[in-house]
Design brief:
By secondary structure, the chain is mainly α. It has a domain of 44 residues. It is flat and about 45 Å long. It starts with a helix and ends with a helix.
């Protein structure tokens, strides 16, 4: 199953009262609307080029391991699991 198919399946399984929230969340993942001031500012912000500290690097690696091991899920996936 492709990611697009899985996304469609998840959206189709949402209760009607969750559709507005889901639409807003998905809209936030789409191409930024430069008409919105905050979205525009974020899209134009420079890339963070500060060096990563040793502690930050370790935290990033730990987080990536958690994702690979399936220890974390997205908030959207949790809502679906909890049928919210």
């Amino acid at each position: 199953m492709t990611a697009r198919e899985q996304t469609h399946r998840l959206v189709d399984a949402l209760p009607d009262d969750a559709l507005d929230t889901a639409a807003k969340m998905l809209d936030g993942l789409s191409v930024p609307s430069l008409a919105e001031p905050v979205t525009s500012a974020l899209a134009k912000a420079p890339i963070d080029d500060e060096p990563v500290t040793e502690d930050e690097g370790e935290a990033i690696e730990a987080g990536e391991r958690d994702v690979e091991d399936g220890e974390v899920i997205t908030a959207a996936a949790l809502r679906v699991r909890l049928e919210l």
